[in-house]
Write a structure and sequence with these properties.
Blueprint lengths: L2 E6 L24 E6 L8 E7 L2 E8 L2 E12 L9 E9 L4 E4 L6 E7 L5 E8 L2 E8 L5 E3 L12 E2 L4 E5 L5 E5 L5 E3 L6 E7 L2 E6 L3 E6 L6 E4 L2 E6 L6 E8 L2 E7 L5 E8 L1 E7 L5 E7 L6 E7 L5 E3 L12 E2 L5 E8 L2 E9 L1
Antiparallel strand pairs: 1-2, 1-27, 3-30, 4-5, 5-6, 6-7, 8-9, 9-10, 10-11, 12-13, 13-14, 14-15, 16-17, 17-18, 18-19, 20-21, 21-22, 22-23, 24-25, 25-26, 26-27, 28-29, 29-30
Length: 352
Amino acid sequence: MKRYKRTMCLTISILILSACGSEEGTNKPNDNITIVDQADAKDELKVKNIQRLEDVRAFQFLTDRKLIVTKENKEIRAEGFGTNEVYAQNLGIYHLKNNHFQPLLPNNQVQHSAKLSPDNKQLFYKVDEGVDSFGYVLDIKSKKTKKLTHKLLYPGSRGDWLNSSEVGLVTAEGKVVQVNSKDNSETLLPTKERAVDIMKGQKGFYYIAVYNQLYFVPQSQRGAEKVQSDAVSVIPSPNGKQLALVQQRNERTKTLSITDLKGTEAFQLADSTQIFGVSWSPDGSKLAYNYIAEDGGIKGIFVADSITGDVTHLNVPLEYAADQLSWSPSGKQLAASTVQDNQVHTYVISLE
């Protein structure tokens, strides 16, 4: 596991001495980025323990010892897939202490893309029926579930909780709707272009439109404001004051930067062929992401300090994370799911 310090030159008209840079093994020229030296060993982020969960796909920590996951139910064939042999994927809670899977909704559905409400009382998830996706909400305590809308959802959109009772969704037609989980009332939200994904922001929401255009819609809903171009994904920080922005710079290069709410770059953390799965730690001090360098270069899970820009390559036995990485509430664990031998497995990484 290696960690590097990075510095950055002057940015625009403001003097910012920050840390950033391209990852180890990437040799693209960048006049603003310089690898200075290897960080002190005493400051290095270390892996304490790794727990492998067989045939489990993790989405989010419920507590430090419980994960929201899905697991294939080979006793039930999934409906809505014609003659294809597809088994149900059931949501549940995985108890890390005793490796016990507690199903929440054992049925014949393919359930995925689970996301907890801000108050941790409800769970938004998607159900696939062939190529079609629909949104549902589950009350974790009562186990009651309801279909949020009968509109088809855009397959690539994750959807997001806008508050503890309303979910923002992108329809198959690229419209953004706000659905109340209590009464299923729907509000069509203003968007300039066809949307492909939505994320909650501070006092409003962000959406990515076709051609990777990033917009922000304030709570007043008086129209969309363009933030940035070439946006692949955006993840607002926990305090809502910064953005982790992945951009497609050219056909071969993506970058990960920390920006202000207007998309102005403070500093760049990484550039590579693929950067995905980006996730802020609960206190906003770190960013975890999956990194793949071109031409068979370095790849894996990296954790960056959001203040200094120091980056640590975690020494874990997986190269590709299949979903967004998830931090535990304490910030001491990371969950990463990956596909190996046509099966999904999850690694829970405990950090020192």
